[in-house]
Amino acid sequence: MRHRKDHRKLSRTASHRRAVLRNLVTALFQYERIETTVAKAKEARRLAERLITFGKQGDLPARRHVARFVTRPAVAAKLFDTYGVHFDPKLRDEVVARVDKLNLPSYSGFVQPKLEAVTAADGKITDVKISYPLDLTTQMLEYDGVKR
Q1: Consecutive sets of 10 residues in the chain, 148 residues long: mean pLDDT of each?
Q2: Where are the beta strands (DSSP E) in 1-148?
């Protein structure tokens, strides 16, 4: 049984194993492709995925954690530049302006809009009207089949 066996020892002492895995992960992020044995690759993958998660966080404690593990500062910076959270401020402002134009209250993110067909006098559909119900209770009662 493999209970409580967290990692592979790779036939090395703890300090040597840590050094080998640090060098493998650093080389992986630097060259983006490395060749190694299956056991070392599986262990390096565990550590690389954790460092990628830290790279996505992008805050100061995450940077310090990665800098302690990765052996080259340029590789650590590349990790945060590649996997860090980046956004375009112009696009963000555009999306915020669109949402503000709808005049929805902040709690109505889960309220479903209604589409109603606008018909002319002869019965043909001329337009589609979108209405946003601002009351979640009424909407849920409609879905439940209860009429008020």
Answers
A1: 86 95 95 92 94 89 95 93 78 86 67 81 84 73 67
A2: 114-119, 125-131
| Domain ranges, residue 19 | 14-83
47-80 CB burial, b ≥16 within 10 A, e <16: bbeebeebbebeeeebbeebbebbeeeebbebbb
> Against a cut of 0.85, is the pTM above it?
no
Residues constituting the chain: 148
Same domain, 77 and 104: no
User: Helix, strand or coil for residue 137?
Assistant: helix
Domain count, the chain: 2
Give the separation between CA 62 and CA 71, rounded to whole angstroms: 15
Position 115 in a domain: yes
Structure-block tokens of residue 63:
């940077």
Retrieve residue 126's tokens. Answer: 């001329």
6 belongs to a structural domain? no
Tokens of 146: 């209860």
